[in-house]
Specification:
The complex is a heterodimer of chains A (129) and B (330). Chain A has 129 residues and is mostly helical. Chain A contains 5 helices and no strands. In chain A, helix 1 packs antiparallel against helix 2, helix 2 packs across helix 3 and helix 2 runs antiparallel to helix 4. The termini of chain B are far apart. Classes of the chains: A mainly alpha (129), B alpha+beta (330).
Chain lengths: 129, 330
C-alpha cells in the first residue's frame, strides 16, 4: 500500500502552486499557460476520484443494452457500431438514458462548470426520466 | 522558437519596416500566441514620435500548411476584399514575399479591443454594446457573403452532404468510439438540407472570440483562415454554437444576442434570402464540427504540439456531446 497523501491530494497542491506562481510573476502569455496547466491538473484529480465509479456503472449499462460481456473499450466500440449501422438508436429510452448518464459523467470530469452541463443537470433534476 | 529564430525575425522585420513606412524602426517584438501551423507576433513601428502597433501572422517555422486552411496569402487577400466590401477588418500593410525571408505571412494593424468571449458576453463594460451586437453581426455577415468569390478560385465550395462526409471521415480517422457523435451524424444525414442555389463566400469561423469588440461595438473580424464557399446559414449556425455563448445559453447568438435581430440586420444590409428553417441543422452541424475538431487535437498533442493547452482542448470534445444530446432531444 502506498503512503499518504493520495495522488488527488498531491495534484491539488501542485495545481495550487502553479496557480499562485502564475498570479505573481509571469508575462501575460505564461500566466495564461500556467492557468491552463493548473486547470488540467484539476481535471486529472477529478478523473482519479470520479471515473472509476462511473465506469463501473457505464459497463453495467452497456452489458444490459448489448446483452453480452466484455471490457469497457470493447463494449463501447460494439455499442457505437450498432448505433452507426442503425441497429440501435436514440428512440429507445434506455439508450437515451445511457448516453445522458455517460456524457454527464464525462463532463463532471472534463468541465463541471460548462453551461451545457449545468443546464442538463438542472433539467434532469426537474424531470428525472 | 529559440532566441536565434527570434533575432532573425527581428532583423527581417527591421528591413521590412521601411517598406511600410519610410524611416521607421521595429520595437517591442513579442509573441502573442499561435497554434501548430501559425505564429502571431505584435510589434511597434516607430518613426520619430509616431508609434503604430502592428500584428504579424506567419506560418510556423518548419510547418507545412496542410490543415485545409485557405493559406496566408489568400487570407491576406480576403481581408483586403472584406475591407473593400465594408466589413470591419484590420488594414493589411504588407504581404510577405520570398525576398523578405520570413516565410509566408502578412502584416496588419493591431486593433485595440476585447476578444475574450466570456468578457464580451458577460462584462458590464459591454452591456450597452451587447444590445446591438447581434444585429451588427447580421449586417457584417451580409457583406461577407456578398464578396465576389471569382478572385479566389482555390476556395472550395461544398454541399451540406459533402461537408457532412468530410467531418464524418475526420471523426473516423480519430479511431475513438463516440456514440453521441454517431447519433448526431445519423440525424444530420437524415435531415440534410439541399445544396444552396448559389454558394457564397463564407468566413468559416465567424464567432464570439474572433471579433474585436469595443464599447462602440464590433471593431474588426479576425481569423479568415477557414474561409470557403457554401450556404450562408453555415456561418449563422456556427455563430449560434453553445461553445461560443460562454455561459449565456439564453443568448443564442454568441452569448450576446437574439437570432431575430441578426436576421433583421442581415436583410436590412441587403443580404440574400436565408433558409432560416435550416438553422437548427447548421447549429447541430457546427456543434459536431467543433467536437470533431477538439477530438482531432489528440493527434497534434501526440505529434507536433505536445502542449498542455492542446491537451486541454482535446478534452473539450465532451462539451459538444452534451450540447448535441440536448439538441437531438429538442
Amino acid at each position: 500500500m502506498q503512503d499518504q497523501p493520495a495522488p488527488v491530494e498531491i495534484i491539488k497542491a501542485v495545481a495550487e502552486f502553479i496557480r499562485s506562481v502564475g498570479r505573481r510573476e509571469m508575462t501575460p502569455n505564461v500566466a495564461y499557460q500556467a492557468r491552463v496547466a493548473a486547470n488540467a491538473l484539476d481535471l486529472v484529480g477529478r478523473e482519479l476520484s470520479l471515473a472509476p465509479g462511473e465506469e463501473v456503472l457505464e459497463l453495467e449499462r452497456l452489458r444490459a443494452i448489448l446483452g453480452r460481456d466484455g471490457t469497457l473499450a470493447e463494449l463501447n466500440a460494439a455499442f457505437t457500431e450498432a448505433l452507426d449501422r442503425g441497429v440501435l438508436s436514440m428512440s429507445r429510452a434506455e439508450i437515451r438514458d445511457h448516453l445522458w448518464q455517460t456524457t454527464l459523467a464525462k463532463l463532471s470530469v472534463d468541465q463541471p462548470s460548462y453551461s451545457g452541463y449545468l443546464a442538463a443537470l438542472k433539467m434532469r433534476r426537474a424531470d428525472p426520466q | 522558437m529559440n532566441s536565434s529564430d527570434e533575432s532573425r525575425l527581428a532583423a527581417g522585420l527591421t528591413k521590412l519596416a521601411v517598406k511600410i513606412r519610410p524611416d521607421s524602426m521595429v520595437e517591442g517584438l513579442q509573441r502573442l500566441s499561435g497554434g501548430a501551423t501559425q505564429e502571431i507576433w505584435r510589434f511597434e513601428l516607430v518613426s520619430g514620435s509616431v508609434r503604430s502597433a502592428m500584428i504579424l501572422r506567419r506560418a510556423r517555422l518548419g510547418s507545412s500548411d496542410s490543415s485545409g486552411t485557405a493559406g496566408l496569402d489568400i487570407e491576406a487577400r480576403l481581408i483586403l476584399a472584406a475591407d473593400k466590401a465594408g466589413v470591419p477588418v484590420p488594414t493589411v500593410r504588407h504581404v510577405l514575399t520570398p525576398a523578405d525571408g520570413l516565410g509566408p505571412g502578412f502584416i496588419m494593424d493591431f486593433i485595440e479591443g476585447e476578444t475574450l468571449g466570456g468578457r464580451i458576453a458577460k462584462s458590464d463594460t459591454f452591456a450597452q454594446a451587447r444590445k446591438s451586437l447581434s444585429r451588427r453581426c447580421g449586417e457584417i455577415l451580409a457583406k461577407v457573403h456578398a464578396i465576389e468569390p471569382a478572385p479566389f478560385p482555390s476556395l472550395r465550395a461544398s454541399t451540406p452532404r459533402e461537408l457532412l462526409k468530410h467531418w464524418e471521415d475526420t471523426y473516423r480517422s480519430t479511431r475513438w468510439p463516440r456514440p453521441v457523435f454517431v447519433c448526431a451524424l445519423r440525424w444530420l444525414e437524415q435531415t440534410c438540407p439541399p445544396p444552396p442555389p448559389r454558394p457564397c463566400m463564407l468566413h468559416g469561423d465567424f464567432r464570439n472570440g474572433n471579433l474585436i469588440i469595443g464599447t462602440d461595438g464590433i471593431r474588426a473580424v479576425l481569423d479568415w483562415e477557414l474561409a470557403h464557399l457554401g450556404d450562408p446559414m453555415e456561418d449563422i449556425g456556427w455563430l449560434c454554437v453553445n461553445s461560443w455563448r460562454f455561459g449565456r445559453m439564453d443568448k443564442v447568438v454568441g452569448g450576446f444576442g437574439e437570432l431575430a435581430d441578426l436576421i433583421a440586420g442581415y436583410q436590412d444590409a441587403g443580404g440574400a434570402p436565408l433558409r432560416i428553417e435550416s438553422c437548427k441543422w447548421w447549429e447541430v452541424f457546427g456543434t459536431l464540427r467543433w467536437g470533431v475538431m477538439c477530438a482531432t487535437m489528440i493527434q497534434m498533442f501526440r505529434t507536433t504540439d505536445p502542449t498542455v493547452e492542446r491537451a486541454a482542448i482535446a478534452r473539450r470534445a465532451s462539451e459538444t456531446e452534451i450540447d448535441l444530446l440536448r439538441l437531438l432531444e429538442d
